[in-house]
Amino acid sequence: MDAIVKTMSEGQIEKFDWGAITWLVSGKIGNSDSMTFGKVVIKAGRANPRHSHSNCDEILHLLSGRLDHSVGDKVFPMNPGDTISVPRGVVHNAKAVGDEDAVMVITFSSAHRKTKGE
Q1: How many beta carbons lie within 10 A of that of residue 12, not counting itself?
Q2: Is 78 helix (H, G, I), strand (E, B) or coil?
Q3: How far, in whole angstroms, is CA 99 from its chain's centroid?
């Protein structure tokens, strides 16, 4: 597969009541056979639902804002520049704390990630 550049304006956006995900790399998009990558925005004071990924690990890197990120039964406060690794199959979610939206990048170890709600 040849290298493919995607701009943010070319990303596939999924909107939710808690924020949005812009997908830039995945098997569905057709620019990777092994990974998924995107940008996530969680609105201030909101949280995405607790969920897990049965077929891949997830790495999340916080660019701006603050998060309380739950992984299993633990909660990890996160500040800009912090990175968290979530093993496959572990239930997790993120809540933006404070007055600012949380902006992060996420990557998965599969081009076709599977997501299951708690």
Answers
A1: 13
A2: strand
A3: 20
How many residues make up the chain in this entry? 118
Tokens 């690794």 found at? 85
The phi, psi pair for 8, rounded to 5°, reads -55, -35
| Model pLDDT for residues 24-70, shown as the tens digit of each residue | 999 999 999 999 999 999 999 999 999 999 999 999 999 999 999 99
Beta strands in the chain (DSSP E): 12-16, 19-25, 36-42, 51-52, 58-64, 66-71, 74-78, 83-86, 92-97, 102-108, 116-117
**Is the pTM value of this prediction over 0.85?**
yes
Going by C-beta distance under 8 Å and a sequence separation of 6 or more, which residues neighbour residue 69?
60, 75, 76, 77, 78, 84, 92, 93, 94, 95
Are 113 and 55 a contacting pair, CB within 8 Å? yes
SS3 content of the chain, % helix, strand, coil (to 5): 5, 50, 45
- Residue 1's pLDDT is 66
Contact (Cβ atoms closer than 8 angstroms) between residue 23 and residue 15: no
Rounded Cα distance, 24 and 79, in Å? 24
Read off the tokens for 1. 């597969």
